[in-house]
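ok so i was messing around last nite and threw this chain in just to see what happens. nothing serious, just curious
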Amino acid sequence: MTDGDLLGQARDVNFTFKAALAEVQMQVLDGEWKVTYYGGSPKMCGDSGYSFAFQRATLPHWKLNEPTGDAADRIAAWLDENGWENITTQGYSGDIADIVIQAEKPDAYVDRLMIDISPDPDTYDIATITAETACFTTDVDRLDALLEPGAAEDSEDLERVPSTEHPTAKPSFGYTPDGKRRFWDTDGE
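result:
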C-alpha cells in the first residue's frame, strides 16, 4: 500500500467513524461537548495495527429533558432505525441510576459504542459517549509519520484540538507541515 493509499484509507475510516458518532451525539445533545479523546490519532492495536478512540462528555449543568429510561429507549430506538447493530441497554438497581447503551456499526467502522447516561436530580446530568474502531493492520508508526509530516520537533508544537466541540464542527485529521490541524475538502486534499 502506498503512503497515499494508507493515508486515504485511514482518513476515510476516521471521517466515517466521526460522522456516525456525531449523529449519535445529536440524539443526546445538540450543543457543545467536552472533548476527551478527539479520535484523530491512531493508537496501536494487535501486533501491528491501528484503531481510533473517541470520547465526548456533556458539559456541567446539562440536564436531560426526559426521564433517563425514556432517553435510553429513544436513543436505542434511533440507533436501531439508523443501522446500528447489537444494541443493548443496561440499567442498574439500587442507588445507581446510570443507564448504559452499547452498539456497533461495522459499515461506519464503529467496533464499539458506549453511551453512559448518569442522572443526578440534585445537580446536573452527565452523558459520555465512548467509541473505538476495529483494528486495521498496517504500520502504525508509518501512519503517524504521514499524519505529522515533519510538523514539529516536539508534539507540544502541534496545534491543539479544541477542548469543546459541537458535533457538526468540521473534523480535522492529521497536521500540516507547520503543525496546524489539517482539514480536508471533499476531494481529499
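not much to say yet. The chain has three helices and ten strands.
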